[in-house]
Every structure is written in C-alpha cells, then in structure tokens.
Amino acid sequence: VQLQASGGGSAPPGGSLRLSCVVSDMGDRAIGWFRQAPGKNREGLACISNPRDGTIYYADSVKGRFTISRDDAKSTVYLQMNTLEPEDTAIYYCVTVTCWRQEVGAGDFWGQGTLVTVSS
Predict the structure, then answer these.
(1) How deeply is 43 buried, as exposed, middle or buried, from its count of CB atoms within 10 A (0-12, 13-18, 19+)?
(2) Nearest to 67 by CA among 85, 94, 47
(3) If we measure between CA atoms, which residue out of 2, 16, 13, 36 comes closest to residue 115?
(4) What DSSP state is assigned to residue 119?
(5) Using an 8 Å Cβ cutoff, are 69 and 78 in contact?
(6) Mean pLDDT in residue range 89-112
(7) Which of 73, 27, 69, 25 is nearest to 48 (CA)?
(8) Closest by alpha carbon to 74, among 20, 112, 32, 6?
(9) To the nearest whole number, what is the mean pLDDT of the chain?
(10) What is the pLDDT of residue 12?
C-alpha cells in the first residue's frame, strides 16, 4: 500500500487548506491523518472507515474545524482544515489506521508527509 499526501502549504491564522491523500489499493481500508510538530508528540487527528461502516473520529484539538472525507472512486481521502491556528503548524501524514469513534490507531503504512505552516 502506498499513500501520497499533498496540499500542504502556508496559510494565515483563520485560513483554510485542504489536504489530499491518494491511496493505492485503498479497498475497504480505514485511513487517518496524523501530525507531528517540532518538539511535540505525534497526534492522531481524524480517521474515516470504509463507507459501509461509516465510522469517523476527530481529536478534540480539531473537532469542529477539520473535516475528513473519502472518495473511493478516486482512492482519495481528504482533510479540509478551516479556522487554522498557529498551533496547527506541523507535518501532516496520511496513514492506514484502525478507526474507532473514540480514537484512532496508526497502522503500518504511512505517506511521506506534507508541511502545513500557519502564520501571519
């Protein structure tokens, strides 16, 4: 399985970015987004299971600001990020995961990461 993330860049506080992750052999896999900021622990942000299951999870730090979605016809998972804050500055990774309603567990396959910088 290969994951290719894109869409990172710079945005001002309060701005928006949309990350995309193309997943080879996505099938019924649950996919999630993690991030890691300098000097901080890796953080699981959101995950989405296959359409028949319909499980979605958000970390409290992004709930109400970020939205995860998937387009299985395009083998792509998206992370729409609104109302960005400087604390959202990090490298963002798409990952194969185990997705529960209360948490996300990282799996074995990680994309290469895309840098998001939020500053004025």
Answers:
(1) middle
(2) 47
(3) 36
(4) -
(5) yes
(6) 96
(7) 69
(8) 20
(9) 96
(10) 98
Strands (E), the chain: 3-6, 9-11, 17-23, 30-36, 43-48, 56-58, 66-71, 76-81, 90-99, 104-110, 114-118
Q: Which of 46, 101, 100, 107 is nearest to 78 (CA)?
A: 46
CB atoms within 10 A of CB 55: 14
Do 96 and 113 touch, CB atoms closer than 8 A? no
Helix, strand or coil, per DSSP, at residue 15: coil
Q: Among 26, 22, 20, which Cα is nearest to 92's? A: 20
Q: What pLDDT does residue 100 have?
A: 95
Tens digits of residue pLDDT in 18-66: 999 999 999 999 999 999 999 999 999 999 999 899 899 999 999 999 9
**What is the residue whose two structure tokens read 């400087």?**
86
Dist. CA 18–CA 8, nearest whole Å = 8
Structure tokens at 27: 């099938």
